[in-house]
């Protein structure tokens, strides 16, 4: 079984996701108690893709997150550095332009995209400040970023229950439904170590994004952060 450590070596993280690719979407639905689908809908609303716009969907995995943008008539590029995820995605959605790429060294020209989005992937990037700057680089002036990531519940009693679920209940459930349950132990640990909502907003500003704001989903279990690239 393969799992990454919290120093997030890229080859370890990529290998870990290669190992869970086949059942990744199913496992996420089970572990999130069905909330993952609702979160994806909220991300799509926040991105607000329009016909003919170019959208970069980073850490897209099998491209489940990319489909809502394609349905709007936007040109969406699913990008991930897990080749296993990309292979599974290509088998399911052969018409999408899957692209292998590292978030810290994106293979795109400056100002290419109207919107850049990443869901549940920024937390797995070793140097996510560099990734935020790279996303800024490939976004056109006036364009936007939307980040969906696990965060910190705002109500203290619920935060305690949530943390207990992550560290105690999630691994046994993962063993029942995932091909690589150890990967989900890493995911639980990485969620606990992730910055809270204001701290991530500050990192976005430090990477050059303006008008940064966030909105909590499911009581802060997940947060949507948004920012814009100045014209």
Automatic annotation (TrEMBL):
GO terms for molecular function: demethylmenaquinone methyltransferase activity. This is Demethylmenaquinone methyltransferase. Pathway: Quinol/quinone metabolism; menaquinone biosynthesis; menaquinol from 1,4-dihydroxy-2-naphthoate: step 2/2. Pfam families: Ubie_methyltran. Belongs to the class I-like SAM-binding methyltransferase superfamily. MenG/UbiE family. The keyword Cytoplasm does not apply. NCBIfam families: MenG_MenH_UbiE (TIGR01934), PRK00216.1-2 (NF001241).
